[in-house]
UniProtKB/TrEMBL annotation:
It comes from the Eukaryota. This is Protein LEG1 homolog. PANTHER family: CHROMOSOME 6 OPEN READING FRAME 58 (PTHR18820:SF4), LEG1 (PTHR18820). InterPro entries: Leg1. One of its GO terms (cellular component) is extracellular space. Residues 1-21 form the signal peptide. Keywords: Signal.
């Protein structure tokens, strides 16, 4: 399987790089409602001396990334001006794509959460994408607070629980550490390394991807039941995507502002419905069709499930050296 898979994944990663860089150019694209999102803690409400953040409202969740990017900016100055090579951009931009592509809405359609005609900014707890993103937002955010780089202490911030399944979401640094100790340690390791004068861009990426993949492992197990709310093509895409993340993690893909904003133009711009079959989706660009087809093939090689993907070291070496150029 691996021998078959390696060239496929290789072609796919290459395809995404080339297409994103050449077809689209490295244009600047901030996430939707970026300017309207909180950029400092004082933009959130305060209760009993704690900032109250509701991560189930899109601009409020995006604000967590905005503050995280702001507070870590100084550590990335030595790699590029204007925070361009802050590797945490990937998380914020991906969340923006989830919003603009309609992936944060209530997939059961029993509420108007997230819908244009309803509660547009609502993030649905039933959205698989929103739930996985929670692990890639709340955990890195709270770990950063706990690591002391956010300018407040852990007892000064409280996240609001979703309307249901509350026990699946940790709300504070201490409860996340209790529920997901290994992942929280890995985010902490990233922030520790960030503060080290000898930090290198590649090492930071490595720490970030370790924490990222670990958070995905945690979240994936908890929310597999959400797939049943989606069409088969969309559920497959979610599964294939999470397998693919293991590949870009192994490749140490640089999650900077320009690479990710270019890269995600190659991703499906809307939720997939029954009958969508890459590369024949008429309202997708050629690149979006090809990338989706590529993701399907990568996922297929793993029987469409994200048991921890074992990645051929030779492939990873090759991909890492390829990625160095971006
Ligand atoms: C961080 O946010 C503060 C307050 O909004 C702002 O004054 C500052 O310029 C920001 N820093 C960076 C690097 O974006």
């Amino acid at each position: 399987m691996l021998s078959l898979l390696a060239p496929r994944a290789c072609v796919l990663v290459g395809c995404i790089f080339v297409s994103s860089a050449e077809v689209f150019g490295l244009s600047d694209q901030y996430p939707p409602l970026w300017d309207e999102s909180p950029g400092q803690f004082s933009d959130y409400s305060v209760e009993n001396g704690k900032y109250i953040i509701d991560p189930w409202v899109y601009p409020k969740r995006m604000g967590m990334y905005k503050i995280l990017l702001n507070k870590t900016a100084s550590y990335f100055e030595k790699f590029a001006p204007d925070n361009e090579r802050n590797i945490l951009w990937g998380l914020a931009l991906q969340h923006g794509w989830q919003f603009s592509s309609g992936r944060l809405v209530d997939p059961t359609q029993t509420t108007d959460c997230g819908y244009e005609s309803g509660d547009r900014l609502c993030i649905s707890v039933d959205s698989w994408w929103a739930d996985l993103n929670y692990f890639l937002c709340a955990l890195p955010f709270l770990a950063a607070v706990d690591a002391g780089i956010m300018g407040i202490t852990s007892d000064q911030v409280q996240l609001v629980p979703p309307p249901k399944d509350q026990t699946k979401f940790c709300l504070s640094a201490s409860s996340c550490q209790l529920s997901y100790p290994s992942t929280m340690r890995k985010w902490d390791a990233l922030y520790k390394h960030l503060q080290s004068p000898s930090r290198s861009f590649e090492d930071l990426l490595k720490y970030m991807w370790e924490a990222h993949v670990s958070a995905l492992d945690d979240g994936y197990k908890v929310f597999e039941d959400r797939f049943e709310y989606y069409s088969k093509p969309e559920a497959d895409f979610g599964k294939d995507w999470s397998v693919f993340v293991d590949y870009i993690a192994a490749a140490n893909f640089p999650t900077t502002f320009s690479t990710i904003s270019a890269f995600q133009k190659a991703l499906p711009p809307r939720v997939l419905v029954d009958g969508d079959r890459a590369p024949f989706i008429s309202d997708f660009t050629d690149v979006q069709n090809i990338v989706l087809l590529g993701l399907n093939l990568v996922g297929e090689s793993h029987s469409g499930s994200r048991t921890r993907t074992v990645i051929n070291e030779g492939w990873a070496d090759h991909a890492r050296s390829y990625c160095l150029n971006f």
